[in-house]
Amino acid sequence: MTALFALATSVLWGLADFGGGVLTRRTPALTVVVVSQSIAVAVLGVIVAATGAWSEASPHLWFAVAAGLVGPMAMLAFYKALAMGPMGVVSPLGSLGVAVPVTVGLVLGERPGLPQLAGVLVAVAGVVLAGGPQLRGAPVQRRAVVLTLVAAMGFGAVMALIAEASTTLTGLFLALFVQRATNVAAGGAALWLSVRRGAPALPEQGLPLTTLAFVGLADVAANGTYSIAAQHGPVTVAAVLASLYPAVTALAARGFLSERLRAVQAARAGLALVGTLLLATG
User: Fold this and answer.
1) Cis status of the peptide bond prior to 246, with omega within 30 of 0
2) pTM assigned to the model
3) Cys staple from 63: which of 164, 204, 251, 275, with CB 3.0 to 4.6 Å?
4) Please, is 72 exposed, middle or buried when counting C-beta atoms within 10 Å of its C-beta (0-12, 13-18, 19+)?
5) If you average pLDDT over residues 250-273, what whole number do you get?
6) Contact assessment for residue 134 and residue 110, using Cβ atoms and an 8 Å cutoff
């Protein structure tokens, strides 16, 4: 069951990233974040009401609020990076956010094993090489690499904060609801300021609500399947299999966008993904 739900998590996260990246190519990134997360809030609100999760409210929910403030900035940076592409390079770099919880553990006194140390070295090599010059053809945009790394650190911070916000499944639903509601509030304020400055909020061809709903709900479902996977088996196994989501994003980009990676790009992105897996298994 752990393997099944963890692999489902990687598929859902990978498809959500792909959908968000595609949407951002024709819809303002802030709009994608706010609308998709608003749909997620509505669904989580129903789940919280149905499970009676409000009874588990505690001061620890401030961690969820903090995660909600960091989350929109990370998602905005990541969607913009995915829009620049190629997704097969950007998505693996985004998974490096797992280094943040590892660092938190070090500060709290944990010591990494050899796989984690190897993961740090391999992941850093992948990050450096991913933004470097190509032997031929156009390089990956350095701005895309920078945005992805900002997003990765934000995602990692959210992971660490949410871990402190709850200890039970129903508590997790409440923490996720609070986080996503804060996402919408923070993202909505940023979108309002952006519109005040003259930036468009809606694409000329209209708002793709179906795809936005898919992105928001896939993200919520992924959090749920990962929680189930972690509760029914070793967290290490769940984390490793769930960390394969960049491969799903790359495959989706290949299948739907015919996005091709040069061998050197695939190798660089692969280094970052291997480093992530080593970090998760340490």
Assistant:
1) no
2) 0.73
3) 164
4) buried
5) 70
6) no
